[in-house]
Amino acid sequence: MLNKPGYDAMFSGVIGQGYDLLNLICPIATEMSRLVGIASSEYAAQATENFTVVELGGGTGITTLSLLTASDKFNILSIDNEPVMQEQAKKHLHKWAAEGKLEFCGDDALSALKNIAADSIDIVASAYTLHNFLDTYRQEVMQEIFRVLKPGGQFINGDRYGLDDISEHTRTIQQEVSGYFKTLTQINKLDVLEHWIVHLFSDESENHVMRESTALEQLRDAGFSNVTLSHRLEVNALVTATKPDL
Fold first, then answer.
1. What pTM was estimated for this model as a whole?
2. Which of 16, 40, 78, 126 is the most exposed, fewest CB within 10 Å of its CB?
């Protein structure tokens, strides 16, 4: 969801304008957003005060809403530099923004994180954003996530984590593409179909794909502990990781 060299800016066009169609072609994505909200609320359950949450790639507000409704303890900064999508989120979530529970930032993820103080954030949450990054950029983002989290803070991400079994991964992607065609041709959204297929080629390129074992090792290399992958649904999974206490 980033619009500068090295990022996929397709969300500023046809996909961004009709992003809600994602629930039709990939209902698992909505489930992952829900799981991010649940995992975040479970982490914050023992807290007696408000939690600061940074959301990377807020998009149209699907995961933001999951976070806001999962716990009233969250004060959220939602980061996304695709204005087409962020404007939809501002419209959908104006109630929470008016209450001071939600702020928006239009910078790219890395720039926004670099402007946040070290050891100041309780949770960094995301869904379907990090897989869009080039692997080199993603590695920098991971390091910044670690830096801004408080000791004991948690990273929670629902995203596309490629299967280590390449053959099984390929079969799963083929089934996914077949579903795109079936769903979007039935409702005559061929322009959206074209853009999602082109975007999928980017997702599956070698310098973008987040292969499970590599992605988890990258988190450990950044300094995280308790790195866990759960709730795998096809190529989608929930990953959590903790910044160790001092």
1. 0.85
2. 16
